[in-house]
Amino acid sequence: MADIQQMVSAIEELPTLPVVVAKITELVNSETTSAADINYTLSKDLSLSSRILKIVNSSFYGFPRRINSITQAVVILGFHSIRNLALSSFVFSAFAKGWQSFDNQGFWVHSLGTAVAANHVAGLLRVPQRTRDDMFMAGLLHDIGKVVMCEYLQEDMERVMQQVAAEDCLFLEAEAGCLAYNHAELGAGLLDYWRLPNTIVELVKYHHQPQSPEADNKLSAAIHLADILARSVCCGNGGDHKIPKINPDAWRKLALTWDEVGLVMDHTLAEMKNASAFFETS
Amino acid sequence: MAKLLQLNEITEGMVSAHDIMTNDGHVLLAGGTRLTAKHLELLQKREVESLLIKEPGEELVEINAELAQVEQSSSSVVIRLAQEQLRLVFAKVRGDKLMDKLFSLAMNRVGQISIAPEGKSDG
After folding, report:
1. For labelling alongside B112, which of A12, A49, A113, A164 has CA 20 to 30 A away?
2. What is the DSSP letter of A95?
């Protein structure tokens, strides 16, 4: 990933992770962190805490009673979910402006749809809750490399989009035709630069290559499937109007039934109907 | 049920329940017209004595039925568009065993799929 690292560090305007979000990410990875630590850190950024509480209290979560404090939210949702909310909130607000060649809102809807689907696929794999939360985050960020391209590598982006339009192909196929890198590597490079947990970085990196020997096969397979499931229910737009094939190895590794896949699609459709709070950045 | 009212009982805003024809077979006033002062004047001039008037409840039922019809036809348009979109999305992967199965699962859920507004999305 040396070249990608160089590329990422060469982008001067690249936003850094806000101090509070970086601190939360670090705290969540530590065994000795308490709810009070998270609360203390978040209390330094009132607008972030209020955005988090707004999403927590939205119909996306559908809690029967109002959650009034971050401490309460941490206790109910767990550390990883709070980190996810802090990170989502940051990326949505940092990259919410319109892009020339790309539908910004459609992009984030696709990303969130993938996150929701990834969380449910992970649920079927019976992984611990914190892994499910990592999967949600990896789903949300899986295409973040495309954001970097839209924002800082416009020429590359335009070439790819022209090819997508001309050949009605996948974004990934167009990239392979005209660039020396792809959005998955670039996204992983950004997340590495932000020092996000390695699990998430790797899942983003291999979401189109779940069979790669370096990938955590089962989880990469799950993100790969989640991306495809979000597309199969026309959830947003990741830059093209096509759907990649499910990798047969990934499918075998996941060992899911089609009924289970249908269930993930149902959950994704239902939850995306309540997702508008995620996109309110103020 | 519509009720028969004498012309002097009829006021503005009531809705006629049937066509009124002239002697030479032209429609003077179509059924379903909401009557204005002008209409009443015309009816008087033509010496129409009574008119079947729609009951307010009846009107509402008709409007609701009409609305339901519009909603039904627009939701069927939305479903057709969503089906069309799915066919396009899956166009290049049909014939693949896994993707054909996924396509049929997606088609079964087509009523819940909301289609993205077209426009700037595809650059």
Report:
1. A164
2. T
Per-residue b or e along A97-118, where b marks 16 or more CB atoms closer than 10 Å to that residue's CB: eebebbbbbbbbbbbbbbbbbb
In A, minimum Cα distance to B112 occurs at A269
Mutate to test the interface with A, among B96, B105, B107 (most CBs of A within 10 A): B105
Delineate the domains of chain A, giving CATH numbers in brackets. 2-279 (1.10.3210.10)
Q: Do A100 and B123 touch (CB under 8 A)?
A: yes
Identify the CATH class of B3-54: alpha beta
Closest CA to A197 of A1, A25, A24, A79: A25
Cβ distance B99 to A165 less than 8 Å, yes or no, reads: no
Q: Which of A233, A259, A272, A274 to mutate to test the interface with B (most CBs of B within 10 A)?
A: A233
Quote the tokens at residue A64: 């029967």
**CB contacts, 8 Å: B90 with chain A:** 232, 243
Structure tokens at A157: 């982006």
In terms of CA atoms, which chain A residue is nearest residue B113?
A233
Type of residue at A19? V
Full pLDDT tens readout for chain A, 282 residues = 448 888 898 888 888 899 999 999 999 988 899 989 999 999 999 888 998 999 999 988 889 899 999 889 998 889 999 999 999 989 988 887 778 778 888 999 999 999 999 999 999 999 999 999 999 999 999 999 999 999 999 999 999 999 999 999 999 999 999 999 999 999 999 999 999 999 999 999 999 998 888 777 899 999 999 999 999 998 888 889 899 999 999 999 999 999 999 999 999 999 998 888 887 765
Packed helices A258-272 and A217-232: angle between N→C axes, nearest 10 degrees: 60
| Binary contact (A243, B96; C-beta < 8 A) | no
- Tell me how far apart the alpha carbons of residues A246 and A224 are, in angstroms, rounded to a whole number: 8
Q: Which of A100, A103, A170, A171 to mutate to test the interface with B (most CBs of B within 10 A)?
A: A103
Neighboring chain B residues of A265 at a CB cutoff of 8 Å: 105-106, 109
C-beta of residue A159 within 8 angstroms of C-beta of residue A204: no
* Nearest beta carbon to residue A242 from set B89, B98, B119: B89
Check CB contact under 8 Å for B116 and A237: yes
DSSP state of A102: B
Query: What is the distance between the alpha carbons of residues B26 and A207, in angstroms, rounded to a whole number?
Result: 73
